[in-house]
């Protein structure tokens, strides 16, 4: 059987295809999102390379295209963009469920490395293990919210399983589930999915496990809520939803003041440190940060415990900040499973404090979130 191809989406796809062809990497090239959806069904690609021009022009349709694949054949999506990609583009990619970012000019080796990474069977525990993590299962037909919520919860220290209608084969924390959360397009859809997932999980989701439904207009259904079921309105800020979830699992408030998370969408490059012959830089993007660390979305995270050199590019001010850190945890792409962990890594800053300028930018972002 020949390997699955790479699907390239974009009007500038021809040069990308030529580079992959020179490296003997199979690919399909389309210009429009309807063509892309057809190829996702027919060709079952191993990887999607999405040109930035498509995301800039049609963010909503990009989200719809990949949301239509929810619960079906999973495929990782890599954004191909400039190192100076604007914050708005990176944030749009995160909202659309992009798993990684490769910077122009494209090297076929970057694509080959990601194809190799997604083909491997990832370890569920081991390098991913954290001290006494609490497991949260998320589901629901609001794929965009579900993905963003899973990212933030994972960065908060939970271990998140995004379930596509089947019970996970392996669970962290000795098989215990601490919360079921459904992001639904409506109250009725959310409740129905909550019942279905609860049934599928069986004894792993006992009656004393709290449950939550996030959907539009849930206040009108408050009289239908049952004990142990929390109704959260879809209109709430996503950080507020995380705070409510913290209280549901009785962990205390997530806002630790100086170390509170803030949205921070930037291109980032990283490589393993401490070597006389440094390896090539890898890439990804950040979506939130604290004064103590950062979450990086990438399909090629190093293993937990590895020291890193990083370059964080704040494109709105055309600044680049070198930082050092250590991989606190890493989740590789889960393969063709019906559930997943948020892809990427949490990096704890090390060495000298981050620069005053970067700290001031983080504080500015925090103030903007507080004012929102």
Beta-strand proportion = 25-35%
Helical/strand content category: alpha/beta
Distance between the termini: 53 Å
Tally of alpha and pi helices = 10
Low confidence ranges: 124-131, 252-258
One letter per element, helices H and strands E, the order comes to EHEHEHHEHEHEHEEHEEHEEEEEEEH
Account of the protein in words:
- This protein has 372 residues and is α/β, with parallel strands linked by helices.
- Helix 7 packs across helix 9.
- The chain has helices spanning 13-22, 33-42, 52-57, 59-67, 87-95, 108-119, 143-155, 187-201, 238-248, 356-371; strands spanning 6-9, 27-30, 47-51, 77-81, 100-103, 135-139, 159-163, 179-183, 211-215, 229-233, 262-272, 282-289, 293-297, 307-314, 319-331, 339-340, 344-349.
- The chain is built from 10 helices and 17 strands.
- The strands form 3 sheets. It has a 6-stranded mixed sheet, sandwiched between helices. A 6-stranded antiparallel beta barrel has the order 11-12-13-17-15-14.
- Helices cover 30% and strands 27% of the residues.
